[in-house]
Amino acid sequence: MTDEGIRALLQRADTAGGNPVFSTVSVVRIRRRLRERRIIRTTVPLTAAAVVALAVAILTNSRQTQIPLPEPQPERIASIEEQVKQLKAQTDATLKLVQEVLEKDRQRERLAALEAELAGIPDPVRQMEERVDKAAFVLLYQADRLYKELNQTESAVAAYKEVIQLFPTNQWADVARERLDQIEQRRINKSEDKGETKCEPRNV
Amino acid sequence: MSAMVRTSEELDLATQFRQGDDSAFDRIVERHSAEVAALANRLLGWPSDVDDIVQEVFLSAFLGLRKFRGECRLRTWLFTITVNKCRSFRFRRRWSLTRVVTGDPEATVGSGPSGDQGAMDEETFARVRRTVQALPRRYREVTVLRYLQGLQTQEICEMLGITANAMQVRLNRAKTRLREQLGDLFEDRP
Fold it and tell me: Directed axis angle between helix B22-43 and helix B74-96, to 10°?
């Protein structure tokens, strides 16, 4: 397809498309159109502004009419103030009660802690009793050794008497008394065997 | 009438209009309205009714004629306004989703040359017009201005604000597309 071929084809198609239709253009018509445009340009924004202003005015007016201002009522205000005071007093009392309960809980917790601490500490009286008991036992054990293993009866008797003297209420003092009785009984038996009677009063 | 004389006359008309002679504008309208209407008709896809565009073009010309300095021909200046108005019109039309209405084929039957058209009928011409309309804007404008309005390269470049090289590139690409889509119409023709 040559350049001239394209031109000829397009021109024929254009011709077949028909002539354009348009009305006469004149200065009068253009001026009228300009006036219309000017009117539209000035009228539309003014109308819009007026509509907005009217809407705002209506809205404001309706709000004012919808929410009337409350009239002052002194009695009602006093009643409300009294109620507020009562509520405040109740609140204070409740708070005080809550504080007391909390303080009691705190004291109870502190007491429990002290008791637990005290329970951890050993009883000194008992400790002393245990020591006394141990000392009495040791002394009795020494006396038993003197009497049974070393056959030192007199020293053993002195030791048993010492146990009874030092720890009269202790259980080992009773044992010492039994030992002394046994020794005395044995002496009596020996003297009977030899024909002697010996009666010694008990000093214990 | 030479181009120089014509330009001188156009300048005189513009000067008279600036001095308050409304009849000068009427003479300008009388002289160029048909060409403006034809250009608008072609750029808008042959809708036939181009009254709105023509009115808009001359309204803009009426408002801007006082600033016309005569650096180009008055026709070129009016065509530039027309091209810009058509661009805006097509843009608005695209968004308003209005279908392009081409001319009624029946109304133009017999109006064109019939003897040398050969096998080409109205349907073929409608296809050609649709193809031109389907071209991208930059190709469509140079095609219409060059082949249908018969403007010279310099005049087209002034109107569109492009260089001669750019115009030639656009024209070649437009021809390539036309050949691709209308090549079968020329198979029987040398």
Answer: 50
